Amino acid sequence: MNAAELRRLAEALYRELAGRPLADVEVAWNPRLRTAAGRFVYPRGEGGGAPRIEINPRYTAAGGRAALVEVLKHELAHYHLWALGRPSGHTAEFHALARAWGFPRHASRDLLPPPAPRWRYVCPACGRAFLRVRRIVRPASCGACSPTFDLRFRLVEERLSVSRRASSTARQASSTARRASSTARRRR
Known about the structure:
- The chain is of the alpha+beta class.
- It contains 4 helices and 6 strands, in the order H-E-E-E-H-H-E-E-E-H.
- Helix 1 packs across helix 2.
- The longest helix is centred in the middle third of the chain and has 27 residues.
């Protein structure tokens, strides 16, 4: 489905649900969305442009037309409340609109692939590796070696590449490190 078809679908849905035409709102695909199925982007200040509804193409490719319609209804509900001058977050009024328009409060997380780990932390003592999507901002130590923070077991940080191949390599490295640490413990 191209951008023009997506816009026509949004217009038809909004006319059916709200009983009025879809005014100045952009409806577009956004392949940069990673964990969200879609989002409503508010205009910024005076002359900040039109509001925008962005849809994650990976989510809708995995879930088909039914998933696309649910996401569009959800984002159109945000737009509808915003256009009426009402609070447009996930408020009680939003949830009432969700029930009336017949869409779930949240998109299914099962349709999006889990984010690839970007960080690997290794214990210098036992070799145990921990894969993380988010960076640990405070110093951390290995919980297997010491239940409280201990500088001797401070985790060594390594940034992974973001590609899927790198994430599978990191998983393999993690399992290799676990096997090595269990072998080292058996030798003690």
